[in-house]
Structure formats: C-alpha cells, structure tokens
Design a protein that fits this description.
five-stranded parallel beta sheet, 2 domains, single chain, six-stranded mixed beta sheet, UDP N-Acetylglucosamine Acyltransferase, domain 1, 258 residues, 7 helices
Length: 258
C-alpha cells in the first residue's frame, strides 16, 4: 500500500510543476486522496460488499469533490489534477500513466445492465478539463482529448479529439498542419490548445492553403517539363509574375485574420 502511495506522490511531483514537496502532495492534492479512497472502496466492491464500497465512494466524493465508482478500474501512476467535478463511471477502465483534469466525465450512454457502458483509457491518455468521454469504447494509447470536448466514438492511439461533437485529428495530420502553420507565421495551438472555434477555423484555412500550395507546385512541375520538351509556343502563355514554388506571404495572411 505504501509503495503504491509513494509511486503516486512521485508521479504528481513529475507532472505538476506547482508541487513543491512530498508532504504538500500528501496533504493538499485531492486527486491523490480520491485514489486512496477508491482503492479501499474497490476492495469492498470486489469482495461482494457493494453497499460498503458505494458508501466509501460517497465519502471520497464528499471530501475530494471527485466521484469514482468503486467498480471502476484504475491503473498505476494515474494523475487526477485539481479534480473537482470529475466523474468516473462503474465500468470505466483507466490504464497506467493517464492524466485527467478537473470536470472530466467518463460516462455511459447505454441503460443495458451488464453491458460495457463506460470508456477505456489506454496507457498515457490525457483528458483535458471539462471534457466528456461517453460510451463503452476505447481511447487509444497516448491520445489526447481537448478541453471541453464531447467524445462519443473511439479515438485512435496517438490522435487528438477536439470540439463538440469531437473531431478526431490523426497524429500525422496534426504534425503536418503544425509544419505548415510554422511557415505561415501562425500557431493554431499557441494559446487555445486546439479547442477554440476560431483556432479550428484557422486550421481549416491552413489545411486548404497547404493543399493548394502543393497542387500549384505539381502543376508548375508539369508545365516546366512540357516546356523543356520543346513546346516553345507555350512560353508565351506563362504569366511573368506566376508563383512557381511553395511560398506563402505570412504578413498578408496575418492582415487577413486580424
């Protein structure tokens, strides 16, 4: 028991720069207290003493503001940061090294008893503040759910889910967008971390501009090949000010979005 407690305290010290000492974490972190209450409640629940398990869960909610059903399964090194308003349902499964922020709901949408109603978070998942993950599906390892997102379908490993209803952004797509945004002089994630509607609109514009840029470059490659093959008359049709490479005017874009 004490080894597990020390591991939890170490996890908080590693992930929260505001944590100054082990004593502070032990006394002042409700996410840690909620996990301790849950482990006691879970023992009663798995040994058939359901009322006792629910009562301990209820006490844990009273003292911490975090409601974890005693039937939920929680792995090691899970960090519930701040925690107020977190609700974790009976059949939820949280694997190792996950991080959950305040106001998160891991809930269910089915009323069928015995069915898998609550989500499974694989290792390393991060759930942003006030997000709701609703249903008996899986959020893949290393995935991120943005603040305020409402997720009702599986999230692939390494992907990001943002918005309401949540839109799934694959990891490779996200990386490509950030590379394009860097060339444009605009970072969609700089402040909003992907959950602001204006940032979402800007992401769409960046995706569209990037696709057009690539298509124009391909067209000019084809035109240059034709010209090189001796179609001299085509040279008269080429505008002298045509853009033939992948280049954006970042200042012009900035003026458009102000």
């Amino acid at each position: 028991m004490f080894d597990r407690l020390r591991e939890d305290i170490t996890t908080i010290l590693e992930r929260d720069p505001a944590a100054r000492s082990r004593l502070e974490v032990l006394l002042c972190y409700p996410g840690l207290h909620a996990l301790v209450w849950h482990r006691r409640a879970k023992w009663f629940w798995t040994h058939g003493m359901h009322v006792a398990g629910r009562f301990l869960s209820h006490l844990g909610r009273f003292f911490t503001g975090i409601e974890i059903h005693p039937g939920a399964t929680i792995g090691r090194r899970v960090f519930i940061d701040h925690g107020m308003g977190v609700v974790i349902g009976e059949m939820a499964e949280i694997q190792d090294d996950c991080t959950i922020y305040q106001g998160v709901t891991l809930g269910g949408t089915s009323l069928v008893k015995g069915a898998k109603r609550h989500p499974t978070l694989e290792a390393g998942v991060i759930i942003g503040a006030n997000a709701s993950v609703l249903g008996g599906f899986t959020v893949g390892a290393g995935a991120r759910v943005g603040s305020g997102a409402v997720v009702t379908r599986p999230v692939p490993a390494g992907a990001t889910a943002v918005g309401n209803p949540a839109r799934i952004i694959a990891a490779d797509t996200d990386a490509a967008r950030e590379a394009t945004a860097a060339r444009l002089g605009f970072s969609a994630y700089g402040v909003t971390q992907g959950d602001d509607p204006i940032a979402q609109a800007m992401k769409g514009l960046i995706d569209n501009a990037s696709a057009h840029e690539h298509q124009i470059a391909l067209l000019w490659t084809a035109i240059e090949r034709v010209l090189a093959e001796g179609v001299a008359q085509a040279r008269d049709c080429v505008p002298t000010d045509a853009q033939v490479d992948e280049k954006f005017d970042a200042e012009r874009l900035s003026r458009l979005v102000k």
